[in-house]
Amino acid sequence: MSKTEQFDVLIIGSGAAGLMGAIQLSEDLSIAIIAKDQLLEGSSYYAQGGISAVLDSADNFNSHIEDTVKTGFDLGNEQSIRFMVEQAPNAIKDLEKAGVEFSHQGEEYDLTTEGGHSAKRIAHVADKTGQSIQTNLLAYVRQKSNITLFEHHIAIDLLMKDKQCFGAYVYDKQNNQVSSFISRKTIIATGGASKVYLYTSNPDTSTGDGIAMAYRAGCKIINMEFAQFHPTCLFHPHAKSFLISETLRGEGAKLTLPNGEPFMHKYDERAEMAPRDIVARAIDHEMKTHGFDCVYLDLSFKDSHWIVGRFPTITERCLALGIDICNERIPVVPAAHYTCGGVGTDINAQSSVKNLYAIGEVAHTGVHGANRMASNSLLECLVFAKACAKHINNSGRQTADLPTFDHWDASRVEHSQEKVVVSHLWHEIRRIMWNFVGIVRSNRRLQAAHIRLTQIQTEVDEYYQRYVLTDDLIELRNLVQTAKIIVESALSRKESRGLHFTLDYPEQLESADNSVITKNPNK
Ligand code: FAD
Ligand code: SIN
Fold it and tell me: Where does 311-419 have alpha helices with state H?
């Protein structure tokens, strides 16, 4: 039976952004958080490296701002960057209040560094930063009686009336039912879209659902061409999506070719500490030039006890696969990691659609420009979640009746005997994106990708109209929409800048249009 639920605020996603948003909302508001998997599942839980914040007296806000602008190839919005950087120490305090215990050296934070940072400013919990954040935030949220949690509930589409958002249609995966979650304010916190690529560091949740839903509802989607590839994911047949943190390089690890030769110095004077677009492109170039399956990351020159204490998760996971990182090099390859573009928002996380907000990786707040600097993502999640909550808390309490919406109509669809179509198209999209829209691009490959993705979208739409919903089908519809937006954005940017590198326009334009905006032409 189709149901209707009503809340003041609906939060779609229970990652660091969604949970922090819920914590910061006033307790007089009724709040629903929905998550399409278990509540802890999502990129946030797997974050290893840490969170950037100026916490050392030798560091300062201007330096963090300059590094962020430079790493983003001057495309970032300086007002948003300044806001994020200045709020960073408070974000660390908010986490500590929720119970997160950062690693310390004596009285001081054990700060480390990563590519692009000119100072030690990454606070971390060993290499389990995300796990600690998520378990503590979730425990904190569970204490609040005004918040209701719905796991295994996947949002299908936003509920729109008179160009305003009033919640979402939500599919309960365990009961196979669609309900209307009607709300006064809706916050999209669905994470990124790196699953559009065949190889990714991300968990299965990152299918771009929030971006596709927002696009269909008429939001502006900004700069989706900037898909970030992390240089070092574990290369092993049994390691699905396992990251080898950039903080290993921050602690001195070296990248080498199979014959042991270092190579990063040939590409950038910062060598291993160059921003990750440069490191990923260098590895890609070496692998393609020489036909290598992978390159290697070597930390084995460090003391074994120190390695195990500093990187317990990575040590343990590698050992389970037969790689002893205290004594051996780690085989690594680049993989899709982060979506820099997203739903365009202002400094209060408001999208271009009324009553609809976006926070976390799904949003484009303008802080990352053409390339995100390491450990600025969790920071963005926390700072803009708080700004969003503050805006909603101060927006006055509405008492008018909420509009009504038709129940989801499943009377005209049938059960599919051809689910293989869904799995085939999933795989085809991810292969197209990996081969044609990857680290190095060209017009020819982008156009070929666009033609086939347009056909796939028609096939998916026909299937969607005809057959009973499944979560795979909901995600497939979003995956193809998001992939198409990435390709269209890439075709629109006629230069190479940061994460968007194309053989047809190898130069960076002197003054580039800040934003490639994609908008649903039917809205
Ligand atoms: P997520 O944490 O991905 O959460 C998304 C939520 O949305 C999930 O609850 C999911 O179930 C839900 N969802 C999605 N679609 C739907 C739908 N249709 N309906 C209902 N629910 C839905 N960044 C850093 O700053 N520092 C790091 O050290 C770091 N390390 C990383 C390591 C790894 C392996 C990865 C993958 C990323 C890392 N990042 C790091 C990036 C950072 O972790 C993410 O950008 C950030 O956690 C995103 O948080 P989020 O809340 O926006 O989304
Ligand atoms: C990492 O630990 O390498 C990931 C850091 C990030 O994505 O910011």
Answer: 312-320, 377-393
Our mutation pick for probing the ligand 2 site, out of 114, 132, 229, 339, counting the most ligand atoms within 8 A of Cβ, is 114
With residue 222 as reference, give the H or E element that holds it.
Answer: strand 221-222
Q: What digits encode the pLDDT tens for the residues 78-118?
A: 999 999 999 999 999 999 999 999 999 999 999 999 999 99
Query: How many CA atoms lie less than 13 Å away from 153 in the CB half-sphere?
Result: 22
**Helix axis angle, 420-436 relative to 471-492, nearest 10°?**
20
Can you give the pLDDT at residue 514? 72
CA atoms within 13 A on the CB side of 438: 21
* Length of the chain (residues): 523
Grouping H, G, I as helix, E, B as strand and the rest as coil, residue 517 is strand
Please tell me which residue in 121, 249, 276, 477 is annotated as part of the active site. Answer: 276
Is there a catalytic annotation at residue 276? yes
17 Cα–ligand 1 center, Å: 8
Task: Give, in degrees to the nearest 5, the angle at Cα 341 between 213 and 165.
Answer: 30
- DSSP annotation of 283 reads H
For ligand 2, whether the C-beta of 374 sits within 6 Å is yes
* Probe residue for ligand 1, chosen from 19, 23, 43, 183 as the CB with the greatest number of ligand atoms within 8 Å: 43
Range with the lowest mean pLDDT among 22-36, 238-252, 365-379? 238-252
Tens digit of each residue's pLDDT (9 = 90 or more) over 217-251: 999 999 999 999 999 999 999 988 899 999 999 99
Nearest to 28 by CA among 384, 349, 356, 398: 398
Angle at 459 between CA 455 and CA 461, to 5 degrees: 115
Q: Is the CB of 21 under 6 A from ligand 1?
A: no
Calculate mean pLDDT across residues 330-348: 97
Work out the percent of the chain whose per-residue pLDDT is above 90: 93
Token representation of residue 10: 């609906």
Ligand 1 atom closest to the Cα of residue 379 is 25
| Position 52 pLDDT exceeds 80 | yes
Average of pLDDT values for 262-269?
97
What confidence tens digit (pLDDT) does each residue in 414-443 have?
998 888 999 999 999 999 999 999 999 999
Nearest-atom index, ligand 2, CA of 48: 2
- The alpha carbon of 176 and the centre of ligand 2 are apart by a number of angstroms equal to 36
SS3 content of the chain, % helix, strand, coil (to 5): 35, 20, 45
DSSP assignment letter at 498: T
User: How many angstroms separate the alpha carbon of residue 36 from the centre of ligand 1?
Assistant: 12
Q: Are 373 and 117 in contact (CB under 8 A)?
A: yes
Q: Which atom of ligand 2 is nearest to the CA of 338?
A: 7
pLDDT tens-digit readout, 148-160: 999 999 999 999 9
pLDDT in tens, 493-508: 999 999 999 999 999 9
Res 513: pLDDT: 62
Quick check: CB of 339 below 6 Å from ligand 2? no
Q: How far apart are CA 22 and CA 146, in angstroms?
A: 10
